[in-house]
Predict the structure.
Amino acid sequence: MRVGVAGGPAVERTLAVMCGAGVLPALVAERARAERWRVVAFTFDGATDLSARVARTIPSRLREFGPILTALKDEGVSAAVLVGRFSMTDVLHTRTSTADETALSLQGRAGSRIDSRLVDAIIALFAGVGVGVLDQRRFLGDLVPEAGCWSRRAPTADEWTEIRRGLALAREIADASIGQTIVLRYGAVVAVEAVEGTTEAVRRGTALAGPGAVIVKATARAHDYRFDTPTIGPETVSAAVAGGAAVLAVEAGRVAILDRQAAARVADTAGLSLLSVSDAG
């Protein structure tokens, strides 16, 4: 897209998509192109090939951050979105002999933990070359749905009681940087997500809970969507169905559901209630 003031030359908007592993980078690139951005894909370990969908593809490594900043300037990038799964330990724990000076400066700013300090350090580097980092939801649209029930079966009154309790508790564990998912049965907390991720937490929790578990995924109140969008998809729903869960609820407007129609079909095979929920119910 070319944007300009009256009487002046139009300027093309260029978006850098920092592509980690998973399906989200391709979805973001397609939606950005639909909005007439010129898209440049910086592809990191595990990223899929986007060469047919973008103006240019630049293979990149987190331990070599200097060339990334140079390419941002050379390509005239005005905004960036970081999307997909990244191995941030490449930045924090790479050997001095294999990292460039910019990556080493990230180590110095962030310390030894993957938390807001690392995010802030990366965003500051981008800002230094005039590139703003955007909220991922800017390009995800209805993948991050507002409140609604996506399966044929809606929760019962008793299940709604557990959902509301689970939503409050899931936010608390997310605020504490523990995890985002909680599994309940009869009002008791059976499992809390930790480093294993949502799908494995669902498998573990439903194995402990037995049939009828209520699963809730939520985010920290100050979650930074410039760096991560919490997500579930058909695989997580399949794990819930296999474990005999009754409900899988995610926080409305804050958790993405990939391939929602397919996820709902999986839920309907076992009468699982799949929904996005807010404080209003």
Observations:
- The chain has nine helices and 15 strands.
- The domain at 2-139 is CATH 3.40.50.20 (Rossmann fold).
- The radius of gyration is 21 Å.
- The chain has a mean pLDDT of 87.
